[in-house]
Predict the structure.
Amino acid sequence: MLERKPVFGRRQGQANGAGVAAHPAPAPTPTADLAAQPAPTPAAQGPAQLPMAEVSRLSIAASRRRGFPEDALEEVAWRVVWLERRGLPGLRAMIREYAANRGTPLQSRVGSQGADGIFRWGCPLIAGTLLLDQFDELMALDPRGAKAISGPDNGVLLLPKVAQYAGPRGLLIRVSWVIDGQIRAQSFVDGYRVATLGDPEALLENTQVGFAPHLDDAPAEMRAGHLEQMLLPAADMRILAELTAS
Amino acid sequence: VSVAEAALSILDGDPALADLLAAATPGDRSVLWGALDYENSGLMTSDGSNNHRLWQRLADHGLMTATAPPEGLPIVARQFELTERGRRMVPVLLHHAWARAAG
């Protein structure tokens, strides 16, 4: 078991109130109108405070420009918001993925066969969708072991799909984040909750991802959605403005 | 016994619960999905409503627990929240109950 320490503590938010029916709409917050304003400079502007509705809107805009089909845009936004509401870097992962592959056709980001014969997944958003059909095979293995895949980049964006698989099956899935053959972090995912132990950067820098059913108790750190807004550093905001500019 | 097996055992052994789940409206379902999605899962409904009967039945199986509603409401309210066991089992129940209802 990896060291237990809080991760992804940079986001703001608070637990919700009395119930689902009583969940208030996020309070209006000053947010950048990316289409109307020049890109902010990091020196002149601090992080942007984004309510989740804005995170969704920006995810859709950037994904549309990236070339995702219209019927996939809501799915991408759902994944980004799912992560951000749980304090995980969904928007940052999406920005990294799109910024690093500007000019690369989306279709070529599915993945590629390496010289070693191993398929390496590329885009985590595409991989998550295609892997959903393979989770039965991945999860049918000896729970003491784990089945690893090569890639994808910015693997944290897989987690909502893992949760989507786990929920109806009552599973708790242990996702191992591997860099150069070493497990650097592990996430525990059921249908709606997630906990991550270890190095949070490994969820973005992973070279492999391992999956296994976790038969022990769920970690106490498991959390469902609890954040209503997030802080996006100015540097990332500037890149996002470029990614959403028409 | 896995979580899924335990959940299906509840469903098989309690036809009334299966009926309540199958009869839940899209609105009723969205409230339960929302409760799962939020960390604070407190849910409120009026006394005797379909949701009250469903949530009470889930509480009978240890999947929800009744809590005290706020005072001063203009209705007789019932409030419940998901238990740890419920957070794992309710998604299984919802999935299978509606799959069965859909044939």
Observations:
- Residues 3-32, 34-42 of chain A have pLDDT under 50 and may be disordered.
- The two ends of chain A are 46 Å apart (CA to CA).
- Chain A touches chain B through 24 residues (CB under 8 Å).
